[in-house]
Amino acid sequence: MSGTQPLNRDMPSPIDTSEAHSRTTVFVTHAAPEDNEFALWISSKLATAGYRVWVDQRRLRGGDDFWDEIDRVLRNSAIKQVVAFTHFVAKPGVKKELAIGDAVKRRLNDPKFVIPIRADDIAFDDAPPEFIRTDILNACPNWHDCLKPLFEALEEARIPKEPQPNAEVLRAIIDAREHGRRFVVERPEAILTTGFRSPCPRAFAITNSKVRWTR
Fold it and tell me: What is the CA radius of gyration of the chain?
């Protein structure tokens, strides 16, 4: 399946323009470290298109969440919240950001404030309550499938963007990606060797005479 999963296309989007006018940031919510790769990819696409994008670089680098800043940006600066909808959407950090986003959605009177993107093979029916009556964009199995409907949604909502990409933001994303390569992500994958089958994570490193896979 590609494109979107239409849950409600009839609902209008009467944004509170008096407050929305001061908001310019597209906020990216994702589970860390599991969805870091997708978060970096979608953030780079948004930044390249000229949108002002915010993604938690501390989590991308493997650091702790900085909730004061997350709360401030999401409550006071975000005009849209792009959410990586994957099997990790129920992680505590994601649920906190969804709860804040739901409050902002009500405050702005914008039922389309949250833009979920299905980035792995999770069932649409497993969507959290915050995605009810929301179009879920589909990026599985091809991430690029979500770009056209995402940019159309942002254009329809008249989200401001610059004519040129923000070079500083792109540099920060690239830097975060380089730091992110150091993460150890336990994601089993089956491999075949000489006569037996064994689950194994994605990339490997040898530590203490054991093979451990990393990015």
Answer: 18
